[in-house]
Input
Amino acid sequence: MTAKIIDGKAFAADVRARVAKHVARVKDESGITPGLAVVLVGEDPASQVYVRSKGTMTVETGMNSYEHKLNADTAEADLLALIDKLNGDPAVHGILVQLPLPGHLNEDLVINSIDPAKDVDGFHISNVGLLGTGQKSMVPCTPLGCLMMLRDHHGSLSGLDAVVIGRSNIVGKPMAQLLIKDSCTVTVAHSRTKDLPGTVRRADIVVAAVGRPQMVPGDWIKPGATVIDVGINRIEAPERGTKEDGSVKTRLVGDVDFDSCAAVAGAITPVPGGVGPMTIACLLANTLTACCRANGLEEPQGLTA
Ligand code: GUN
Output
């Protein structure tokens, strides 16, 4: 079997177009422009790139983008004061504090100081609890993007066996909750799982979110299964030659070994161009959803769990 490649880039472009269309309607009917505030503490280069592209895409979909860049040594009280101000700002419908934060800042405290209704990451303890009990919540962006692609490919997920590899708060745990909500039978596997190959082999759906390059080989995959690869890992690629400074060129790979898995799976997401683009698209969708809920406006259809 040769797997269908799930084109996350095209899917994300479609989600952003649907967001833009609904944003235009909201502006037209209510005069309200959805707004997303992104807070970046420090100068981590990867985070800077990420924050810049969030800002660009927010504006492209017709929403307002507010960027707050703070020094790496910002005091916790100052960050909390900024969040408090954003919580009270009616022009701000979504707040995202870019993670990871510098070590002296308490991430849990910071995240839980965001108004849950503006928590477009879905990381606040209230949203985690609402999702876990199957209630309406803000849903973390990466698992939401995975769910949208799975629903699109399968139609109904009801009764399917799903294995989520990885138990992080950002991806693994919320992914499992979403799959349970869609009536999958869910196993969350992790580094201590006794028989990982055997566990993965039983799955109709495999979501890999461990952050270990190419750790899932094709012979772990049940023929015809759907493989969603959340990993984004940079590895050395000597076959690409060397850079000007003499160092080996690199490339991005996922948590699954794409070639061997694509030979067995029914469908698979590539890296890059799979889950990655869906994360920002879902952030925009969440910002729009938060704006609609805050103002009693009709929510966009098909853009949340
Ligand atoms: N850092 C990497 N991914 C994310 C994300 O989805 N949300 C936040 N807040 N920080 C991140």
